[in-house]
Amino acid sequence: MTQEELLAVANAYVECYNSDDLATMKTLMSEDVEVTHHNRGVHRIGRDIVFAGKEGAAAVIPDKHFRDRRRIVAFDDVVLIEHTWAATAKADMPGFAKAGESIELELCTVMTIQDGKIVKYDDYG
After folding, report:
1. Which PROSITE patterns does this chain map to (predicted)?
2. How many domains does the chain have?
């Protein structure tokens, strides 16, 4: 894939995430996608398992979104995005936030993309 094609997939994912378009997000990920949120103990393999978690999280943090995209770089089959993830907890999230608290995480998201699909997704931060 070209750099432009890699960036198009990564940007589409972020836009779908921000608009809560789970149906389109699913089409951007391979069936056996591996998702890891380092430093938070989350590791999932398989699109259905990943999206089961996303649907459950929407009830607790419905306004979650990425913002402040400061840098995005594509090379080989990888896209790196430096940005901020933000949300407001609607319920207590032990070890993370109390109900009503704002959450901000500075992240580096690394997407490995093959044949137009995200096959590996890592968040560091």
Report:
1. PUA
2. 1
